[in-house]
Specification:
Elements (H helix, E strand, L loop, with lengths): L2 E2 L6 E2 L22 H15 L5 E4 L4 E4 L3 E7 L4 E7 L8 E7 L3 E8 L7 H16 L4
Antiparallel strand pairs: 1-2, 3-4, 4-5, 5-6, 6-8, 7-8
Bound molecules: zinc ion.
Length: 140
């Protein structure tokens, strides 16, 4: 049962889920940023959309990528694209700078993309895994 918030159009599994109900234009995240930051975003989005349905929500501080539930976030910076993704194991990759323990989603990976060549098949595979994990999760 998917519930769509009437105010911000985000979709959730239940109507009670707390969220920051703010609608920001996607383009606002890229104003004042290097144009390549938008290219990095578009390329990455194209890659994850090959996995299946992906919703994109522009929140105040980040852009959420959601399959059934969110599996990654992206935050455009001046010269690079920062992001997080959730995995259930301690995957390592040159793009992953930091790993944080998270109460509900196990390991949060923090990554930074600075050039299109940064995204290699291994990294796409990690994104795919994050996407599939939340799809398979019984409830979050
Ligand atoms: Zn809302």
């Amino acid at each position: 049962m998917i519930w769509t918030c009437p105010r911000c159009r985000r979709q959730f599994r239940s109507a009670t889920k707390y969220h920051s109900c703010v609608h920001i234009e996607l383009a606002d995240h890229f104003s004042g940023k290097d144009s390549q930051v938008r290219d990095l975003f578009d390329n990455l989005l194209g890659s994850v959309q090959a996995f299946g349905p992906v919703q994109v929500y522009a929140l105040r501080t980040r852009i959420v990528l959601q399959g059934e539930v969110q599996f990654a976030t992206l935050t455009p910076r001046k010269h690079w694209l920062e992001g997080t993704l959730w995995l259930r194991w301690k995957a390592e990759h040159p793009l992953i700078s930091c790993i944080e323990m998270h109460v509900f989603r196990d390991y949060v990976r923090i990554f930074r993309l600075t050039s299109p060549g940064d995204v290699d098949p291994e990294f796409i595979a990690l994104l795919h895994e994050a996407y599939m994990l939340v799809v398979l999760a019984p409830h979050t």
